[in-house]
Amino acid sequence: MTKATEVTGDLSPGVIPRSPIAKTKLFFKLHWHRGAPGQATPDWVLNFCYGMWLAAFAFKLVGSSWDMSWHFMWLRDDLAPPHLINTVGTVIIMVLVAIHSYTGMGADRRSLRLMQIGLVVFLIAAPLDVINHRVNGLDLTAWSPSHMMLYIGTGIMQAGVIMGWLKYAKPGRTRTGVLIGLWTFFLENTFFPNGQQEYGILGLRAWERGTPEAEPELLNFAANQIGHPVDRVAVEYFTMPIDDWVYPLWGIGVMALIFALARHTTGFRWAGTTVAAAYLGYRLVMWPLLLGMGFPISVVPFYLLAVGLAVDLAFRIGRGHPLLTAGVGALLVTAFGYGMLWVQSQFRPWILGDAHTESAPPVAYWTAAVCLVGVGVLWTAAGPGTRAVNSWLEKRREKTALPAA
């Protein structure tokens, strides 16, 4: 190994070990020294680091999915396996943020700050959620403040990772593939609260047909929270506490904006459809696994594929004209999203007849008008808003920069 190689770490492909442990040892041997954000990063280090980010988010994804199902069945969650799996992902993230922060490699100042802020928010939210459970009992909704802090912290981290990879990865299939993966994780984290209704409606129907999924201790706990016997009112309070207008606006309107960001940042013409398909593929894998383990299952949001397709078609029709793209996008997202959600809701009566189950949560369809206007306005404002923020940040950097000697 030459002197230059020892300093820069620019190794030939044949020298780079395949084992993650060996790569970690090599990284610490060559690069464990303090540096400011934005340090030059060898390709193998960048790819290894962001591969570990994907692995960390995968652990958190599996843990959170199982955790959602767990809480529709069990009251107790201390040292629950889903929490332990999620913790593995969190520990990997803590190590990665420490490495980025100390070496300055693989992230510029802006992306690093987002990673750090997101991790801090998550680490603050985790004990707050535990304290909330200890003081107030089990939190029966995915939309509670402490739970939202967990999603927000994770989302901020993921935004930082996406920005770092965008800045440093070389154009090509690897860059696009990793971006698709990162946007899929970002979509899942943002969509996650909607699982309350997707699991909840099946939990309610299970109780109505006399085969409750939740253990008696959990049902008694939920009923006691509202001073009620264990009846339909109490079970509905536990399973379906969210208004019907929330699910479609979050699942269609907000997810459409994420698909649009994925399409814009990757430049891949079918990015929205691919991200939706990747997420649905994961849900279709988890569904039989949870069923096989005897845990509650959810309806699967197949309509997301239509929303992703609508976004991709809007970019093709708009062809570089922001206003046209946003206007067409709002129309297509609303038509495709609400149309497919309605079709999905009819699967139960069309295919299963009078079976006491559902193929979609309850939906307030009047929200289509809100979605149409909201997506159009936010999509239109995204470009000017981003440019204004970047301009402000650039001016701020210039003001805080030290004068030349």
From TrEMBL:
Ranges that cross the membrane: 44-63, 83-99, 111-128, 148-166, 245-265, 285-311, 323-343, 363-382
Keywords on this record? Membrane, Transmembrane, Transmembrane helix
The keyword Transmembrane helix is assigned to this record: yes
- Protein name (Swiss-Prot/TrEMBL): Uncharacterized protein
Per the UniProt entry, what species is this protein from, by scientific name?
Amycolatopsis coloradensis
Query: What lineage does UniProt assign to this protein's organism?
Result: Bacteria, Bacillati, Actinomycetota, Actinomycetes, Pseudonocardiales
